[in-house]
Design brief:
Mean pLDDT: 97
Shape: globular
Number of helices: 9
CATH class: Alpha Beta
Number of domains: 1
Number of strands: 8
Amino acid sequence: MMIWDAHCHLSGVPGRTPDERMQQLIGYADRMGIERLCVFMGMTWSYDPSPEDMRRQNDDVLAALENWHDRAFGFVYLNPNHVEASLAELDRCVRDGPMVGVKLWVARHCNTLELDPIVARATALKAPVLQHTYIKATGNLPGESTPMELAELARRHPEAVLICAHTGADWEVGIRALRGCKNVSVDLCGFDPTAGVTEMAVRELGAERVLYGSDAGSRSFASQLGKVLGADIPASARKLILGENFKRLLMPILRQKGVRL
């Protein structure tokens, strides 16, 4: 069964260079039968990167991809607190480079207007936008987004392809918040395997809007695969979640770039 991991990082992985860390990730992925990885953010990361730090982190990912274009994709890491610098990075890494999507983290809430030009440019380039979301009992970080805020962004940009990272972690709330947003898929990564999460996502959103991701190297491929492989869902839904959905989301930009799979 084809497995594409929609959510990986260079941080938390052994290695002195981006290429060494990618070699480690590919080695772990091979043991689990994972065909392709999507990687974003640098060897060391920051919550609110300056334009210079943002560029450095994206350079790390570009270096990591250099020898692994047959196994890995990259998403450009952007910071909506620096809109012009983010648009320049989007052009450098996606329009003019090998990356195929956008990663947004915790610098600014995703329902704010500063995200609009970034999402609009990504949509024009056919690049999916993966937005970190969490709902924490102890309180979110100052700029950390929730699925409810992502729903606001999705309604402003109905043509955008958006991915709700972590399904908000409090997945029962996150899934319900996004039911009406047909342009938003959810990824299952990052929180501990919990009975019922995949079943609820399939039931409420449809299997076509659910993606497997690991959050490696802070999480293991195996524990996150368990959310899908252990779920009480049809085999056809499992096949979609493990790889076919993410491949479908990427195909428009891959075709535009002339990538053959």
